[in-house]
Design a protein that fits this description.
The complex is a heterodimer of chains A (211) and B (206).
Chain A: H1 2-27, H2 39-45, E1 52-53, H3 55-63, E2 69-73, H4 77-82, E3 89-90, H5 99-110, E4 114-118, H6 122-134, E5 140-143, H7 152-155, H8 173-185, H9 193-210
Parallel strand pairs in A: 1-5, 2-3, 2-4, 4-5
Chain B: H1 2-20, H2 33-40, E1 46-47, H3 49-57, E2 63-67, H4 71-76, E3 83-84, H5 93-99, E4 105-109, H6 114-125, E5 131-134, H7 137-146, H8 157-174, H9 185-205
Parallel strand pairs in B: 1-5, 2-3, 2-4, 4-5
Helix pairs in contact in B: 3-8
The chains are: A alpha/beta (211), B alpha/beta (206).
Chain lengths: 211, 206
């Protein structure tokens, strides 16, 4: 009698255990969006000129009727409504990886087209661009300028600019010298006491050697 | 009775084997792409150049300003107090060690904020905490702190206050006629050189 009770309880426990696991397996879903590139691989993509579109290149792209490029506007819908590149698709940053938008990128890829991401600034589009690359969409390029530079009329005058427009150092060495130079000439200090005590020692030593 | 025990044991073992072949996720430690995307959309990671300067001047020990430009550019000009961490070596062991200091605010900066932002995204993906981006980058820092233009007399007191703060900060970093010594080591060096020179001149006079 006791033995029978024990077996029954054991059977119930095992069946319950099995049901829990089977339900878990049925409802388990892989995350829809996963990284296809490792961090090191994504890091290697940065500053790769083949993945960038300069303002100068946009002239030919905008005039190109073959439709090899699709512009993606990552700004919000209000900014998009005020003005955007002809035929550009509006995909705000937050909705970039939604099912519908991933479908758009899949279609672009299967049609052998290239998506060109632009935002208000290069900085705004660079995040979404890196996210798309990391999640496996390789036919995505980044526009390296501001939205204002996308105008057809303006694109012509931008031919001479460097590929990575906004990462060009703009340090004005003349201004830097103007700021650092006065410190070299005059030595009337009023704050750090510690340094004062160091300097006179050196002076004494050198003047003593001179005599 | 014995058969029943055997059957139950087999069922449990089979379930155990089945669980071994469950589809695994190997990037558990990484921030999931959707969360990362909403973090990208959140502008709170951007700190202004004035904020950073204020903390540099106060010598905030919790601030770690990381310059992600190549070493050559870092050599020609860098913000006093910043540390060079070229973006190519972001994933190297010493760099990771630096980034994993949870007690520090790591602020990325580059010439503009594009590369710094990308370095931020990759670090964020790896789950690193307390990381920020300097808005506008080093070019912006230079133009506001070192090369700021004097506001008009009629400007609001806030604008004038900000200008005075920037001038004071610039003097702190690079010295000025009134204040020759600055606490940054690079600047200290040049100051001692000057003093030596003046000492030598007086020696020549004797």
């Amino acid at each position: 009698m006791d033995e029978l009770n024990k077996t029954n309880r054991l059977t119930i426990a095992v069946v319950a255990f099995a049901i829990v696991i089977i339900i878990g397996m049925i409802t388990f879903r892989r995350p829809e969006v996963t990284y296809k590139l490792s961090p090191a691989e994504s890091l290697a993509l940065l500053n790769n000129p083949a993945l960038l579109v300069t303002p100068a290149q946009t002239t030919s792209i905008l005039n190109d009727s073959a439709g090899k490029y699709v512009f993606i506007d990552v700004r919000n819908s209000i900014a998009y409504g005020k003005g955007h590149v002809k035929n550009a698709i509006n995909i705000p940053v937050r909705e970039l990886l939604s099912k519908k938008n991933r479908q758009i990128f899949h279609e672009i890829e299967s049609a052998n087209q290239t998506a060109v991401l632009y935002g208000e600034t290069q900085q705004q589009a660079s995040g979404p661009w890196l996210m798309l690359q990391q999640t496996g969409f390789s036919a995505v390029k980044l526009f390296t300028g501001n939205f204002a530079q996308l105008n057809l009329a303006e694109a012509d005058s931008l031919t001479r600019l460097l590929p990575q427009l906004s990462e060009t150092p703009l340090i004005d060495t003349a201004a830097l010298k103007a700021v650092t130079a006065p410190a070299m000439k005059e030595n009337t200090d009023n704050k750090p006491v510690a340094k004062k005590s160091v300097a006179p020692v050196k002076k004494e030593a050198s003047s003593g050697g001179g005599c | 009775m014995n058969k029943r025990y055997l059957f139950l044991a087999v069922v449990v073992v089979l379930l155990g084997i089945g669980m071994l072949f469950m589809p695994g996720t190997n990037d558990n430690k990484q921030v999931n792409p959707e969360l990362l995307l909403s973090a990208i959309d959140d502008p709170s990671r951007f700190l202004t150049t004035d904020d950073i300067t204020d903390r540099l001047v106060k010598q905030d020990p919790a601030l770690l300003l990381l310059d992600v430009r190549p070493a050559s550019e870092f050599g020609s000009f860098s913000i006093p107090g910043s540390v060079n961490l070229p973006v190519d070596s972001l994933l190297s062991a010493p760099a990771m060690e630096m980034l994993k200091q949870d007690a520090k605010d790591k602020v990325f900066c580059s010439n503009s904020d594009v590369t710094a932002n990308q370095a931020w995204i990759i670090s964020k993906r790896l789950g690193i905490k307390r990381i920020y981006v300097m808005q506008g980058g080093i070019n912006q820092w230079f133009n506001t702190i070192v090369k700021d233009t004097k506001p008009a007399e009629s400007a609001s007191s806030k604008t004038i206050e900000l200008y005075q703060f920037r001038v004071a900060a610039c003097q702190h970093f690079y010295g000025s006629p009134e204040m020759a010594a600055a606490p940054k080591t690079e600047v200290k060096k040049t100051v001692t050189v000057v003093k030596k020179a003046s000492g030598a001149a007086s020696g020549g006079g004797c």
